[in-house]
Design brief:
This protein is α+β, with helices and mostly antiparallel strands. The protein is built from 10 helices and 17 strands. The strands form 4 sheets. It has a 6-stranded mixed β-sheet with strand order 7-6-1-3-2-8, covered by helices on one side. The two termini are 21 Å apart.
């Protein structure tokens, strides 16, 4: 289930906004969509004024999404599926500057994701991409009759094939897909080479490090804790608390799907073991004696299973797209 409830947004333009809005509304993790006019000259333009081509406004879709369910990278890749990224001021049968393709952002952190995404897209084309990228300067809602147009008028004009809507509905949750591409499980030989003896024994042989004699039991800087075997983010500092046990303790993981739990009856005890889903590394155990106000759970994790990335180093180390977890 979702552990980070904050919503993010992105503004995408790709021809007539009726079809683009319908398409993105079908994707799991997209919370709201609305159509309007973006990055033009003037205030609160009408559809007729935009169609005249003198305002430089572009037909655009405002997409509000849950970043714990769907990533910006995935949304952008879905966007590329329904536009001709090399076409200038036209998509389908639509012509004019109001039908240019564009990505308009409100968060500076999104620039890194957008630039990397477009870099990979460009590799597929010999022609130069014609997708405009810019911070959002302004956005005005289109007239009411444009909102959810294809829901109200299912036979209305659309330059996007209806099969794309079905594809959008069945699209897999991208976070796991993205992470599987970005964070890889290593072979035993690789792990023996990159891990210390203690890290190997803890993550691969389910050993437990000594309490109060490990790296992160009393670490409370802002940042994220990643799986030492794959690099995948597992826990965030805002969910860490001092349990007095001598090991790092968290109230929850960043994403439930990033970890798996299994019954552990070793050493004559009845416990629930916690392992990373992607790397299958032993992390620790989860108990029901955590702070009630934080949900009542205590994820007791070995420092040897983790690497801590402080907030001011996250961008440098390639985790800039996770800085939203630091938002207050």
């Amino acid at each position: 289930m979702c552990n980070v409830s904050r919503e993010h947004d992105i503004y995408l333009a790709g021809g007539c906004f009726w079809g683009v809005e319908k398409y993105f509304s079908c994707i799991s993790g997209v919370r709201r969509t609305e159509v309007g006019y973006a990055n033009g000259n003037g205030v609160d333009p009408t559809y007729e004024q935009v169609c005249e081509g003198t305002t430089n406004f572009v037909e655009c879709v405002h997409i509000v999404y849950d970043p714990s369910i769907v990533s910006l990278n995935f949304l952008l890749n879905m966007f590329y599926e329904v536009v001709d990224p090399t076409s200038i001021n036209k998509q389908g049968n639509d012509r004019g500057t109001q039908y240019r393709s564009g990505i308009y952002y409100t968060r500076k952190l999104d620039v890194l994701v957008i630039e990397e995404s477009l870099k990979k897209l460009q590799e597929k084309y010999s022609e130069k991409l014609a997708i405009e990228v810019s911070p959002l300067k302004n956005f005005y809602l289109a007239e009411d009759y444009h909102q959810k147009y294809l829901d109200v008028n299912p036979n209305g004009y659309c330059h996007i094939p209806t099969t794309k809507f079905e594809s959008a509905k069945s699209a897999k949750c991208c976070l796991q897909h993205d992470n599987e591409q970005r964070f890889q499980k290593r072979t035993d030989e690789e792990l023996r080479h990159i891990l210390t003896d203690e890290q190997y024994k803890v993550t691969q042989l389910s050993m437990t490090e000594h309490p109060f004699e490990n790296d992160y039991w009393n670490e409370f800087q802002e940042g994220i804790y990643i799986d030492i075997t794959t690099g995948e983010p597992l826990f965030v500092s805002s969910d860490k608390f001092d349990a007095g046990c001598g090991w790092p303790s968290f109230s929850k993981p960043i994403q439930r799907k990033a970890i798996k739990e299994k019954r552990d009856q070793s050493h004559g005890m009845e416990r629930i073991e916690v392992r990373s889903s992607l790397g299958d590394a032993h992390l620790g155990h989860v108990f029901n004696d955590g702070p009630i106000e934080k949900g009542g759970l205590r994820y007791c994790i070995n420092s040897a299973s983790l690497t801590f990335i402080p907030k001011d180093k996250m961008k440098e180390y390639g985790y800039g797209d996770y800085l939203y977890l630091m938002d207050k």
